[in-house]
Write a structure and sequence with these properties.
With about 120 residues, this protein is mainly beta. The chain has a single domain, classed as Immunoglobulin-like. It contains one helix and nine strands; from the N terminus they run H-E-E-E-E-E-E-E-E-E. The strands form two sheets. It has a five-stranded antiparallel β-sheet with strand order 5-6-3-8-9, with no helix packed on it. Strand 8 and strand 9 form a beta hairpin. The relative contact order is 0.26.
């Protein structure tokens, strides 16, 4: 009887959905000379780090909102104490990208305290 109860609890544990991620991100556009990443915050986060990665040698001509760091292959934004809502991060290039961009979103989940890293591709 005890083994059946343990098995039942185990099956229930596996079928109960986990909590939704606090942050969801996707590329709204990656065509032409502009790359637009949309980040939806479902709950407040501590520090939120957003990085857009692109092929080395791509020349950046515009960034919205202003970035914390720009290198030859990425743009990094740092947002402290981000509240819920939608944020848009856009990068304008001098010429169309030869390879689609990617992104990395990093934050600390306030509920679990766990550090989360999400990779985003178009």
């Amino acid at each position: 009887m005890k083994n059946k109860f343990v098995k039942l609890l185990f099956i229930l544990f596996l079928t109960v959905p986990g909590p939704a991620l606090a942050v969801n991100a996707s590329f709204q556009s990656t065509s032409g000379t502009r790359s637009t990443l949309v980040v939806d915050l479902r709950q407040p986060t501590g520090t939120l780090i957003v990085e857009q990665h692109f092929s080395p040698g791509s020349r950046v001509t515009g960034i919205t909102p202003p970035a914390r760091k720009v290198s030859g292959h990425s743009v990094t934004w740092l947002l402290k104490k981000s509240g819920p809502g939608r944020r848009t991060f856009a990068v304008q290039f001098a010429a169309p990208l030869s390879v689609p961009p990617s992104a990395t979103i990093k934050y600390q989940d306030r509920v679990s305290g766990q550090f989360i890293e999400q990779r985003v591709t178009p």
